Amino acid sequence: MIGVGELREITPVGTPSTVTAAHVTSGLPMPKPVRVKIFSPDEWEQFVEEYGASLKSDYTQVRRFAGAGDMGVDIAGFITDQGFVGGWDNYQCKRYDHPLRPSDVWVELGKIIFYSFNGEYTAPQKHYFCASQDIGTTLQRLLADPAKLKQKCREEWADKCASHITDTQTVALEGDLLTYFDAFDFSIFSSKSALELIEGHSKTQFHAVRFGGGLPPRPAHLPPPDEPQKHESRYIRQLLDAYGEHANVEYADLPALVANAAMHGNFLRQRERFYHAEALRNFARDTVPEGTFANLQEEIYQAVVDVCDTDHANGFNRMAAVVTQAASVSSTSNPLSPATNVQDRQGICHQLANDDRLQWIVKP
After folding, report:
1. Do 189 and 129 meet the contact criterion of CB atoms below 8 Å apart?
2. How far apart are CA 94 and CA 136, in angstroms?
3. Sheet containing strand 75-78, strands side by side
4. Cβ within 8 Å of residue 309, ≥6 positions away
5. Which of 334, 51, 62 is nearest to 211 (CA)?
6. 3-class SS at 214?
7. Is 301 helix (H, G, I), strand (E, B) or coil?
8. What whole-number distance in Å separates Cα of residue 105 and Cα of residue 93?
């Protein structure tokens, strides 16, 4: 019989003292490796595709292969522009309900050996096994011992490889194939842990949307270059025309504007804002899915276009009214919202003017 002294008071540890409003709304965040483990088949496929995008900076070309006839190739990273004829690496990505075991990979080793022997491709320089449930300890030890991996693969060939490499024939490990097998470098086979996959994925624009946790810190804003660049020409021309209409003079170029201290000071502020928006565009390219920044531009456009179309005394007043309106826009639904400031929203107006979507001078 259980004594009273064996019972203890219920004292939940509770959650960390640094809880936020987001925790109350959504609960404590799920660790990323745990999230990967519970990905649905579709989510895993999307994650693998997104991870593949992180490899593009490491290779001349990255391609994904799928279907029954993939010949053991999943994600191929080509080191040269010669494809499978040149050097390449293979990333074999598996989704199972358990950590990857030796029994899960024998046929994959067999495919690489058989198809490279047949000349379908040269053997990869590296072959990485990647798995949603990570790599099991037994397989990890085998991958760290190429000689033992080769020995075990040879022992398992008849049962796990011969009838499973292709549907069209039984692949016996004998003759020239056996000679090729014996000479094959098994040190090419290794693995990527789930944490390594997540780290690679974190370098893509898909990471924040896939895992949450907010955007990475935005790099410090660099000042505009002293000399205007070619890609600035249209919005600068629009500004010069707007200043000229306001002052009732013609500013043919920027040196002509310098004499008007007030207008030149305004120009420097507008150019600073343009570069703020350009920096946000670059940040968006690396941190959020394609089209996110364009959607933000469209939100700003819709918020200011009616102000732009309203009657104004001159082009300068129209431009000033538009950028003032942009400063008050709250684009909370856009994923870039946490990283967007007033200067960005105002600078987007000049990006829109650069594309002639906004025009400061109304043509009769």
Report:
1. yes
2. 13
3. 61-64, 75-78, 88-94, 126-131, 189-192
4. none
5. 51
6. coil
7. helix
8. 11
* Per-residue pLDDT band at 286 (split at 50, 70, 90): confident
Give the domains, in start order, of the chain with CATH numbers. Answer: 32-211 (3.40.91), 230-354 (no CATH)
* pTM score: 0.72
C-alpha closest to that of 105 among 116, 94, 114? 94
What pLDDT, in 10s, does the model give residues 309-340? Answer: 999 999 999 999 999 999 999 877 888 998 99
How many angstroms separate the CA atoms of 72 and 92, rounded? 8
Contact 239, 360 (CB under 8 A): yes
Does the structure show a pLDDT above 70 at 14?
no
Angstrom distance (rounded) from CA 134 to CA 156 = 22
Biggest CA–CA distance in the chain, Å, is 100
357: DSSP letter = S
Query: Rounded distance, CA 36 to CA 211, Å?
Result: 9
Q: Which two tokens stand for residue 65?
A: 């292969």
User: What do you get for the CA distance between the two ends of the chain, in Å?
Assistant: 97
131, β-bridge pairs: 94
Q: Which two tokens stand for residue 237?
A: 């021309």
- Enumerate residues 6+ apart whose C-beta is below 8 A from 97: 133
* Structure-block tokens of residue 62: 């990255």
In this structure, are residues 135 and 96 in contact, taking their beta carbons and an 8 Å threshold? no
114-168 pLDDT tens trace:
999 999 999 999 999 999 999 999 999 999 999 999 999 999 999 999 999 998 9
- The DSSP secondary structure of 24-85, one letter per residue, reads HHH-SPPPHHHHHHT--HHHHHHHHHHHHHHTGGGSSEEEE--STT-TT-SEEEESSTTGGG
